[in-house]
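task queued by scheduler; priority normal; single chain, no ligands, no partner chains; default sampling; output format set to structure tokens
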Amino acid sequence: MKRFVKLTAAVMTLLLVVLSMAGCKSEAAKKYVVLDEALEAEQYGIGFRNGDIALGLEVQKQLDTMAADGASAKIAETWFGTDNLIKDAAYLEESEAPAEDDSLTKVLDKGKLVVGLDDSFPPMGFRDEDNNIVGFDIDLAKEVCKRMGVELVLQPIDWDAKEMELNSGKIDCIWNGMSIDDERLANMYFTKPYIANRQIIIVPEGSSIKTIADLEGKKVGLQKGSTALSALTKNPISEKVTSITELADNVSVFLELKAGRIDAFVVDEVVGRYIMTNN
């Protein structure tokens, strides 16, 4: 009897291992696709406090120099495999600081630039396997700070409260793949956009969702406080979806998609394609 029990236990253990491996194989084989239709075209920019024009112009000056000498192109090629930076963009707001603006002087005096970011926004800014914050925007900011002669301080923030974090003085700017829209232009100072972006829709391969119209009756997920929400709500389909799930970061939303708790994921194209590639 004891021998039979031991044999049965061994068989059950083996069966569980096989089932586990099959599950892993099934999960690994799962793929995701981007719909041909995008919700909205956007551009990324760096946000400063509305009165910190001098600081914003100095950062832009360094970025322009980096574009001219090829430093920013090299960083882009490292992260994206190509130089996808916008060239010769016009200033979105003032291109000259008032005489009383001491925002640059304050940063130079303290010797550091505090950058607010969402640290789970790959490939712009995220944590690697050693918990270090890395990314395209991080490398770009490091080079700008090096040229300005100040230390780069990375400050993770609640993305949904980014304007409050900026205006409270806890950070000097928001530099983390931030899409520019009318509301943000009113609440912050932007110089020039530096990367083009779109709000895309990601679904599991084989999904019945082929077009934006197919989102009717479906569950959609996106990052709270992101322009993905405004892009979705501007489209009439937002009135026909079953629900909109808002989570703190895009990685969490993608995990919801993988688990089948949502049917579609609205996200910045730069970020969404990176997450898909590194699924």
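post-processing summary
- The CA atoms of residues 220 and 244 lie 5 Å apart.
- The chain has two domains: 30-39+198-277, 43-197.
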